[in-house]
Amino acid sequence: MAFATIQPFQYVAIRLPSENIRVEQIVPNGQINLGKYGSFHTNQIIGRPYNLTFEILDRSEAQDGKELRIVSAAELHAVALVEQAETEDAPTPRTDLDDTGAQSTPKSNVNTHDDPTNQKLTMAEIEALKQDDLGSGKGLIEKIMQSHSTLDQKTAFSLAKYTLRKHKKYLKRFCILPLDVPTLVDWMMADREFSKIMEMRNEAVALVGCWANIHASDPVISLSEASQSSRYLVVDDTGGLIVASMAERMGILHQQHLEDGIAKIEEEDPDEQAEQPEVVPLHKDKRQQHRQSAMSAASNSITLVHTNQQPNLSLLRYFNFDPNNPTPSHPLYTNLRSLSWLQLLEPESDLTYQEPEVIAPEELANAKSNRRSAYYRKRRRWERVKTVVDETRAGDFNGLIVASYTDPVSILQHLVPLLAGGSQVVVYSPSVEPLVRLADLYSTARRTAFINAPAEEKRVPSEDFPVDPTLLLGASVQTARVRQWQVLPGRTHPLMTGRGGAEGYVFVGTRVLPAQGKVEARGRATRTKKTKALTDPDDEPSQLSFKKQKIATGEAVSAHTASTLPPSNEDLGVEPMIVEQNGES
Amino acid sequence: MVSSFLSRGCVAKEHDLASLHLRRDQSLPVVLSTEVTSADHEGYAEGVVTNTRFGSFPHSTMIGAAWGSQIRASKVDTGSRGRKEAMNAKAKAKKRKAEALEQSQSRSQSRSRTDTHAGDEDAVAAAAAEVEVEVASSGFVHILPPTPENWTISLPHRTQVVYTPDYSYILHRIRARPGSRLIEAGSGSGSFTHAAARAVFNAYSATSGVESVGKVFSFEFHAERHRRVKAEMVEHGLDTIVHTEHRDVYRDGFLVHEDEENRDRKTSPQANAIFLDLPAPWEAVPHLTREHQDGKPSALDPNSAVHLCTFSPCIEQAQKTVSSLRRHDWLEIEMVEMQQKRIEVRREYTGLSYDGMRGANAYAADVDEALVRLREVERRARDFHARTLSKRQQANGQRQQQQQQPDVGKLPFNGGKLVHRTEPELKTHTSYLVFAILPRAWTEEDEATARAKWSKHVKIAPSVPKSQRQMKKEAKLKSRGQPQVLNGRVDGEMGETTTEKTNAGTGESTPRAEAEAEAEPEAEAEAPGGLHV
Fold this sequence. Notes:
The complex is a heterodimer of chains A (585) and B (533). Chain A is α/β, with parallel strands linked by helices. Chain A is 34% helix and 15% strand. Among the domains of chain A are: 1-114 and 155-199, no CATH class; 405-418 and 432-470 and 505-514, no CATH class; 518-585, no CATH class. Chain A has helices spanning 73-76, 78-89, 93-99, 123-132, 138-147, 156-170, 181-191, 202-211, 219-224, 241-250, 281-289, 332-335, 341-345, 361-366, 369-394, 408-415, 433-441, 444-452, 527-533, 539-553, 559-563; strands at 11-15, 21-25, 31-33, 39-41, 53-56, 68-71, 173-178, 231-236, 301-306, 336-340, 397-403, 419-429, 472-486, 493-494, 505-511. In chain B, the strands form three sheets. In chain B, strands 7, 8, 9, 10, 11, 12, 13, 14 and 15 form a nine-stranded mixed beta sheet that branches. In chain B, strands 2-1-6-5 form a four-stranded antiparallel beta sheet, covered by helices on one side. In chain B, helix 4 runs antiparallel to helix 6 (191-200). Chain B starts with 16 loop residues before the first strand and ends in an 8-residue tail after the last helix. At the A-B interface, strand 2, strand 3, helix 1, helix 2 and helix 7 of A face strand 1, strand 5, strand 6, helix 5 and helix 6 of B.
């Protein structure tokens, strides 16, 4: 797996005692400074497992190159374990206190007053202690705790809280977490500008991935199959988070070997893989290995449509992929394809789509080497752009994910027709309003109106139908949110504070292929038949004739449907209706 | 075998599982088939037929259709089939009627046999011909490819189902990714099993050349449920990805019999993601350790951290699980609860013009409209009192006009006001999710080896993109010391390596200081997402 041990050049998340997260690249032979928590050399953690907690040792304790100590799980849980043992001996701590109440008055906060003099150590003394004790800070905490005069008055609850607070302030510990999409989201949410990823929480990332049915494809099967599988379309304004989460689900985000000095030595711009006659043969062999050109993968691929000339995928940097300077060894090099809206919708207006003029081979042979390489570079870029644009315009994608500030209606108008039947359309939005509008545009009522509209009004886009409402089925909007709990013996409750902001909503629909011609629904009385049957304006005969008709067609229309039949005569003289959705109103 | 969940192709093929979308939140899972295998499907002239409340659908009309197609219902003779069967049943039943008693035992048996035989022949003929199918005047379904989501909605409930908001978050948090090895206990209704299979899937077999084939190990202690899940996995083509086992995991742990023949040998599933949907997860936690006292192999992946999630409806269960996890050295223990809301989007019609229509609020749209109406009423009252007959008739005429105007019968799809709210059925609590991580075992020896490898200054060439700063530095070096770079090239080394080399030559302190300088400001300077071009 990608995260067996900490690899050099990998980005990692470092969690500090304050619960803050820092993201750093582990450059070998380097040093990472954690501010007041101290600093450590990267070589001290490379090759070690993830999720361990390290403690920076005092200078005196450090020996034969060992600067860090791994803190055991038992030590990390010490406080909770002790409490747990105590409470589990006595099943209900409250009654226990009541029983022994005669012997010792239970601690309560009745006599606790906020008084700065409770802490006997002065600020200067604490600073001096810090100077003395450069190490783990445990001694410091002990001393502060001892000198706190009201400590024995504190209830168990506040004591635990106090200890924890002190620990966070002075312990020189850190924990290295693998930087994957869930951790990245946590970090962006807590320590970064959350709005840069459209305030997309892990719940939403997970929900989007599942509803969009993003998954990997078998490398052998997908090659042999006539139709390519796992091709997804995406519009991403989250700086690459959506692309990263899709890539993670498809198994093409995390590079397996970063320190490989043999397979890979150089990186170049994809457009600059020019012929270089001066390179030695050895070099050329290596080149051959990576001859697979950028964006060449057809299956298991992500196609990104972007608003600007270049896509904004800056978050992919943390997974060691720079879209402006992609590394051929990274799986996204071949499997992430991008094109602009201009290239998609009006390729003829895009310069890179125009074929560069062909220079005769003999002329080329005489040309200067940099001109020659420029020529090849241009040809290659054109070939790449042309393949991506043509294949995207051909459609047949297996899913569409949109997380964009651009109006989703305009996006869906162009991209939904490019999807294969049965694929999922998922739109994320931080606020609900754009999705409400979208759901309305694909509502059953609007679809019915569209189907029944006279041919000349059946235009898309038009005022009433900005998108073709027959192309998506089961449009729905949902949201999900987790609530965190604290679980401690006798003190289990939801966390008191959380993060507000955008709720985060997800729109889901399924691309379908409407049948050609007239399609009539069943399951409720069609108005044509009823109108014909309604010779008598009275209610009873109409019900009867309906039943008769039911028998005639041999249909098992449920009793429910018959009973909900509107018994009014308001339908007299109404045009025959074609109802698109079975039994739905 | 290929699963239509994971590699669906563009058309629905025979033996594929398809999800027939009937209406919102209502779909019917159907395995497409041309051969009549069960008694339920016997007796149709069209071969295998699925009957829904929206019509009858012979499978021959669906096989070969593109996924997502709208399929019209067909005219299927369901009536006579039913009668024929009833007749068969009567014949088979030990005759109660006097006239039946008169018939000899052998004769009745032979009759029933010929009947079924004739039915079979019919079916075969229909399957071969497949032309008699006639499109019905109304009714349709959409044929959708199966996904864990639509399967979750339509699956046969055996136990409490883990729904999409929960399982999506769980799989995300326990890092179930292509190539992961996931333990699930118990299988239950199989909704999580399907979602997990999709998440870990990267190949159907090891021959595809992937490093680690993603697998789900699903344990169930209820024999019947286990049998059903196992059969489902075969039917859905997921049996190479999901290994099912009938097991009481509290007692017997998580080692698996991967080899069907050799039942004595148990191997480790080498799991790195675990989902426990059990009444007492704390009873299973002792089986999930790095080392066992009795020398059995660990069920966990020795080379990576293990992510665990337990799913318990009651808070006491969650508390007990958490304390047990603490005792067994699990870290990052966290408990959350998932709250999901589905949003109902609708149009709200308010206004006197919608008067008399179903679903509309017969109140004034605004104060002006109310005023108009009130003035009108007021005027009529005045007219009535004044007994001016002619004016009264006129007023009546106006009123009728007003009422007839909206009588188009239906509320306009683009009228009213667009509103949204939470759907009426709300799941306010599903379960408490406890998450925890067990890091890799790391012994003193491991640490010593790592320290030996990484203690000193090391030279490696990265295959990662370089930062602007690095590239500038290299460019500078290139322009300054051309020969150096050339040498580097001849050696087959370029870029980063050259820089490293040069630095290494000047002394060890330089690269360290440099890396330090680089590591810090870079992360700060380029705010992610901030690089709009």
